[in-house]
Amino acid sequence: MGQRLLVVGGDGAGMAAASVARRRRPDMEIVAVERGPWTSYSACGIPYLIGGSVRSVDDLVARRPEQFRAMRIDMRVEHEVKSVDLEARTAEVHNLAHGRTFTLGFDLLHLATGASPIRPPVPGIDASHVHGVQTLTDAQGLLDDLADRRPEHVVVIGGGYIGLELAEAFVSKGAPVTVIDSAPEVMHTLDPDMGALVGRALRSIGVKLEVNASLIGIDVGEVVTTQGSLPADLVVLGTGVRPNSDLAAAAGVALGVHDAIVVDRQQRTSAEGVWAAGDCCQSLHRVSGRPVHEALGTVANKQGRVAGITLSGGYATFPGVVGTAMTRLCDMEIGRTGLNVTEAAAAGFEVVTARIETTTTSAYLPSARPMTVKVIAEARTGRLLGAQIVGGPGAAKRVDVMAVAAAAGMDAEELLMADLGYAPPFSSVWDPLQVAAREIVAQLAT
Questions:
Q1: Which residues, other chains included, contact 335 with Cβ-Cβ below 8 Å and sequence gap of 6+?
Q2: I need a labelling partner for 223 at 20 to 30 A (CA). Which of 192, 357, 418, 423 fits?
């Protein structure tokens, strides 16, 4: 028998590494431990499960435990690693189903422990009607509570992607929804002028927004904020996530930004023979050059692949992120990548911006829908730093062009002259990103 690899975490980052390692090293013994009953699932699909577009929790599962076992991966669900001794190369594992604890030895360790919803430290935050939504176990708990309570007033704490997607899901089920956010506008990853467009769209579908409102406490039947009290018989947390890095920290593994695990380009941690990937670890931002915590499934799977290659003796690197994300709220699509104005200033950039109002297709087609595009570039050089797009169907995926451009270090002139595709059902003859780039070039020429 070859080396034993212990993988802690059975979702994307963990099982991507385990699967790659199995293909590369048939002789390796691989044990994967997952606290919940599901493996390799799409947490991003949870709002659509709550809204009814997805029929069941099982529909979100990409690969089941028995499929991994068929690959000779010892997949142990409903097991939790309680502690790790890196000197002895042992882990204390608790079998949640049978209530017993045992010691498991390993040679190599891969941490893919994910992240947990942030719970503001206020009275009532741990009440039974308050739900975080990060795992399928969370999702099933929320579904069960919805069926039992049949809530008349739902409050979502936080106006980020997951919070707003859940707000739309509850609206689709006919439940009155209020979103509370401490900022002046929702969607903090957007600049406020673009976030205002999202807020306007939410109000148009019946979502009540309470902005500039900080949470004070949660009681039976109500939520208390700095703006007053609101009725609430179900509360959902959309306040972001924190890395599940306590296990790593207790084992002496170095932590970095937001207490995420520090890794190098090969996903190696500060400890010999220990790798990490996914929502529990940090990434390098390719535009700012700074470490960031980017809890996205796309990032987790790529990092897991790199970890699987390197821990099995190969060579691969994860180059970093540019912060690309998108969502859809009813008929409105939202996309962003790179740095917003605040982030760019914090990274030391002096910026110029261009914001244009346009349409998703050639304006003369009946399918044309409004779209707003904002591009951020470095002053003097014109280097592309980021973009934000809010608009109708067909708007958001344009952000992928800017994601590649920003990662490649392109400037506005290069984007302006890029050979992008054109046909009236997809774009005007000048792509909207190029129209915004043209404005950036004009500003730099003055």
A1: 324, 325, 326, 387, 388, 389, 395, 396, 397, 398, 399
A2: 192
Rounded distance between C-alpha atoms, residue 273 and residue 267, angstroms: 11
> In the CATH scheme, what is the homologous superfamily, with its name and number, of domain 4-42+61-116+242-311?
FAD/NAD(P)-binding domain (3.50.50.60)
- Cβ-in-10-Å burial (0-12, 13-18, 19+) of 40 comes to buried
- Distances from the Cα of 368 to the Cαs of 47, 363, 387, 430, in angstroms? 28, 6, 21, 15
Distance CA(404)–CA(344), nearest Å, equals 18
Q: Are strands 234-237 and 370-378 parallel, antiparallel or unpaired?
A: unpaired
Q: What is the pLDDT of residues 91-115, one digit of tens each?
A: 999 999 999 999 999 999 999 999 9
CA end-to-end span of the chain:
69
Q: Which residues are catalytic?
A: 44
pTM of the entire structure?
0.94
**Other beta carbons less than 10 A from residue 243's beta carbon:** 26
Beta pairing partners, 104: 91
> Per DSSP, which regions of 133-173 are E strands?
154-157
d(CA 2, CA 271): 21
Q: Side chain identity at 260, as an amino acid letter?
A: A
What are 255's two structure tokens? 């932590």
| Helix 12-24 vs helix 297-311: crossing angle, to nearest 10 | 30
The residues, ordered by sequence, that sit 6+ positions from 124 with a Cβ below 8 Å of its Cβ are 130, 217, 218, 219
pLDDT band at 173 (very low <50, low <70, confident <90, very high): confident
Q: pLDDT tens digits for 210-247?
A: 999 999 999 988 999 999 999 999 999 998 899 999 99
Q: Which amino acid is at 62?
A: A
CA dist list (Å): 406 to 130, 257, 340, 401: 39, 23, 12, 9
Contact between residue 441 and residue 416 where contact means Cβ atoms under 8 Å apart: yes
Rg, Å, the chain Cα set:
23
Domain ranges of the chain: 4-42+61-116+242-311, 119-237, 325-445
Same fold, 4-42+61-116+242-311 and 119-237: yes
CATH class of the structural domain 325-445: alpha beta
Q: Which is the CATH superfamily of the domain at 119-237?
A: FAD/NAD(P)-binding domain (3.50.50.60)
Non-local CB neighbours of 421 within 8 Å, separated by 6+ positions: 427
Q: How far apart are CA 27 and CA 143, in angstroms?
A: 42
- Find all residues with CB under 8 Å of 98, minimum gap 6, and list them: none
